[in-house]
Amino acid sequence: MDLWKLRLSMLGTLAVILGVSTLGFTLIMAAFGGFDIVSLIIIVAAFNIIQWLVAPYLVNVFYKVKPLKDNEHPELRDMVAELSRKTGIVTPTIMLSNIPIPNAFAYGSPLTGKRVAVTKGLLDTLEPEEVEAVIGHELGHIKHRDVQIMMFVSFLPSLFYILARSMLFSSYYGSRDRQNSSGLALIGGASMFIYFFLLLFTLSLSRLREYYADQHSVLVVDDGARKLSEGLAKISTSTWKMQRNKGGKTSLSGFKTLFISDPDRAAQDTVELYRARQSGSDSDLVRSVMNRRITGFDSFAELFSTHPNIVKRLRALQQ
Questions:
Q1: What is the predicted pLDDT for the residue at 171?
Q2: Mean pLDDT for all residues in the chain
Q3: pTM, rounded to two decimals
Q4: Is 205 part of any domain?
């Protein structure tokens, strides 16, 4: 995927989100009055900021994350330091997540600083060169400030959702004035529509940021396209096997936008990988996946995912 086209797509998507949000707020405030709406915006904004500040502590608890010890995985420490130098950023704090699912994520806040975490499952499943490519992807998220951007963008649909719920609730249980109740219901319905519309574009922006981080890995890691492609294939396959053995989805999807690969898509991605497998070679597997036809159902399902379809993602890496 061409970097300039990718950047333009992200800017266009962000412009749509901001434009629709501004229009929606203007119409709602004109119809309902500004004071209560402004107060709600302030409350929701404050809640999101607090959530952003404390989220790293929650991530540490949920995913059993601890700082990497000085004598622990020295090759990983050297890898992150070298890739940070190539990226042009200060080396983030390296964290280790004691969970079996292979994955990695970048996170942090002004209270904790920037962090990159890898799971025990990732180090056990992937080869060192594939881990390197995954780290390159996560450092791309840090360089591009994806955590901050997605937090800001995600705030907008959540605000309209709260507006819709409060208006619809008030129209049903609040005023007995039929005309006023109908007005509240109309505003609530419009807010719910705007929420759904913004949610789709927010998910689209999340997928574009994943492509962008993939491209960063290609730029800073030697032979990064091959290494990351094979790593992504192994992550999806291993995650699906673990989910199957446990009889369902993992319980680790609450912060799935952080991950390099969406755990909830692992089953679908792995079916695609197994369909395409023609030999035991990782490179042949990746090549076969890229040649698979993307169905209309695949494209529809991708609309509701934080991460790109794996076939499209691997094709983009090869470009």
A1: 66
A2: 82
A3: 0.82
A4: no
Place of tokens 């056990």: 124
Look-up: residue for tokens 């209560």?
36
What CA–CA distance (Å, rounded) separates 199 from 251? Answer: 23
Single-letter code of the amino acid located at 160:
F
Separation between Cα atoms, residue 228 and residue 140, nearest integer Å: 13
> Across the chain, where does the E strand assignment appear?
65-67, 93-97, 104-109, 113-119
- Residue 254: pLDDT band by 50, 70, 90 thresholds? low
Distance CA 302, CA 292 (A): 16
**pLDDT score for 286:** 77
One domain, residues 129 and 239: no
184 and 255 part of one domain:
no
244 touches 293 (CB < 8 A): no
194 in the same domain as 121: yes
Q: How many helices (H) and strands (E) does the chain have?
A: 12, 4
Residue 130 scores a pLDDT above 80: yes
Structural domain boundaries, residue 281 = 224-318
Is 212 among the domain residues? Answer: no
Specify whether the CB–CB gap between 52 and 109 falls below 8 A: yes
* Spatial distance between the Cα atoms of 271 and 311, rounded to a whole number of angstroms: 11
Spatial distance between the Cα atoms of 83 and 170, rounded to a whole number of angstroms = 53
Active-site residue numbers?
Answer: 138
